[in-house]
Amino acid sequence: MTEAAIEVSGLRKAFPGVQAVAGVDLSIRTGTIFALLGPNGAGKTTTVEILEGYQQRDSGEVSVLGFDPARNQLEMKRRIGIVSQETAADSFLTVREIMAMIAGAYPAPRNVDEVIALVGLSDKAGTRVGKLSGGQKRRLDVGLAIVGNPDLCFLDEPTTGFDPDARQEAWAMIRELKDMGKTVLLTTHYMDEAQNLADEVAVIAVGRIIATGTPETLGGRAEAASTISFRLPAGTDLPDRFAAEARMTRRGAMQIIADDPVPLLNDLTGWAMAESVSLTDLTVERPTLEEIYLSLIANDTAERKEGA
Amino acid sequence: MMRWLSITFLHYRYAGISFLRNPMAAFFGTLFPLMFLTINSLVFGDFAAPDGGDLPMTAFYTAGMSVFSVIMTCFTNLAAGLLYDRDMGRLKRIRGTPTPISSYIAARILLAMSVGVITSILCVILGVTAFGVPLNLSILPGFLAIIILGAASLSALGLAITAFIPNAQAGPAILNAISFPIIFGSNVFFPIPNMPRWLDLAANALPVRPFADAATATFFGGRADLHDLIIIAAWGGIGAIIAWRSFRWQPAR
């Protein structure tokens, strides 16, 4: 399972006036879910479209399942499935018809009705695509990407426009792809999506990868300081040894930031028990993936300004 | 090869289903020519056809509207449909699947040709049954061969022209601006006996007048001019080469 499904090094692509991709290196292991995160215009979609064969690169080495996507071979297309931005299905065809049309291009497709059920469109199988809601169309997109039973799925923002239920179902389906041994390259704006699904994440900004890791370790998240939050009853003051470290949020909660939260918590709860003070809403949190992501992007922007 | 054929048939079938469910496409491709045939025949049907011996003018209109229906379905509708599908991202989706390019394009061309040929036959049936056009069945194979040749040539040109049209909104305006002046100067709606020489030369070098003249000649029981056939085929070849080299699957950025 260590063999790479996708191998990219030194990938570059410029459009008039913009260096959209400025030297990207990626290695995605077979059978894993890899999430590519980044702000709009960072080069996510350009990178993914080069891997899919939609766009030609300027330079760099790219291997997708051992193929060079620039050569646009049908053998590669038979083994990949794509949920893309800016694609649509013929609105006069029904869900089942469009699914059969796409499935027919693959050598060993999955059962059409099974896939329709998997994406939760069984009761819409006979409905024309033009009559589906936005979220239903996106689910159809996901179904069309997997109906060919591909080894590698490109999912470019696959859950945009989904309600929370539908997202949970889509996530379950993506995990199922992984259980079947498939490789998934996911791009997303939703950090909880990356947190829930990805084995590995990479953050891209201004055409370069600025951080890679697991959702737990990205950007030093595992070692990052924890935040202890709680509320004090009115009229109660913290002892001085805590008060020096603590700050009050706008909503009146106390927060203490600690590199090692265990001794401090022991001390704090010991004091509270001894004095019969109730610490309501007590939580201990490491920074979320979203906070780490935002600080990575902010640091990168600041460094770029200094360099300029 | 079997895979290629089965994928071509698959796209032919589903593009056909989609066409039949799309009232606008069906209207312009098929009802429009039949409507013109009816109006022209009712208004001018009593005149004698030019070069037609004792054939009535309705015979000329029947042949002309058969040609017109091929131009509408194979050139205008095929190009406008592809532009729309390109803008909507439908072509991009097909491109992401293991569909051979040649197979998809062949399916779209074959569908346009089928609709064009069927509409031509409907024109003939309408002319014969409603307007008393005399029909000698022996002319049909020759006439249909010309219709099929013209349909193939105009489909290739319809495919080629999409490379030069930026988006679907611009499509109908550009397509009609190209096709209608040529159609009016090409003996499709009415015969033009005395055109200025330069216009005459231009019309003979473009594909529509040779197509219309060949269709009319065979429909009147004569033979098509070999020169006309070469011009029709040559334009088809040029269209096919341009289409092959510059066909775009996505709208320009």
UniProtKB/TrEMBL annotation, chain A:
Main location (coarse class): membrane
Domain of life: Bacteria
Keywords carried by this UniProt record: ATP-binding, Cell membrane, Membrane, Nodulation, Nucleotide-binding, Translocase, Transport
PROSITE patterns: ABC_TRANSPORTER_1 (PS00211), ABC_TRANSPORTER_2 (PS50893)
Lineage per the UniProt record: Bacteria, Pseudomonadati, Pseudomonadota, Alphaproteobacteria, Parvularculales
Protein name according to UniProt: ABC transporter
Keyword ATP-binding among UniProt keywords: yes
InterPro entries (alphabetical): AAA+_ATPase, ABC_transporter-like_ATP-bd, ABC_transporter-like_CS, ABC_transporter_ATP-binding, P-loop_NTPase
Automatic annotation (TrEMBL), chain B:
Homology family: Belongs to the ABC-2 integral membrane protein family.
Cell compartments where the protein resides: Cell inner membrane; Membrane
Topology of this chain in the membrane: Multi-pass membrane protein
Transmembrane segments: 61-84, 105-133, 139-161, 173-192, 229-247
UniProt protein name: Transport permease protein
Pfam families: ABC2_membrane
InterPro entries: ABC2_TM (IPR013525), ABC2_TM_bact-type (IPR047817), ABC_2_transport (IPR000412), Nod_factor_ABC_transporter (IPR051784)
Keywords in alphabetical order: Cell membrane, Membrane, Transmembrane, Transmembrane helix, Transport
Domain spans labelled ABC transmembrane type-2: 24-250
